[in-house]
Amino acid sequence: MRTASAIRELIAASVVLSTVTVALTSAIALGIGYGPVATKRALFVVGFVLVGLGILQLRADVRRGETSEAEYRRPHGASGLGRVSGAALPAAWTVPPEGRFSDAAFLVVVGVCVLLVSYLMEAVFGVGV
Fold this sequence. Notes:
Order of helices and strands: HHHH
Low-confidence stretches: 70-77
Helix content: 55-70%
């Protein structure tokens, strides 16, 4: 069972990382001359790629025969996304590496957040309808 602080870190870091992903994708799509429809489509593709990569990483942990707890965290130290979330969040919100979710879990949640932004662009603002 995860602690509330690990879940809070996962959500906060995912919001920060998805905001950066949305900003970069939007800047690239708009910077090369495409409009908001291309931005929404690019966010849709990026979101699905992130979710797919995260799911494949979670599945790879299971195939290696590791314990079920290893699917969700890496006890041997901070990983790449763990270091990014540690740098982006206040020190009071960070969790030691042994209690942190894995990069795969971060990728899945970030991908879902990016897909949510793409959906909100269509449903609320009418982009691409």
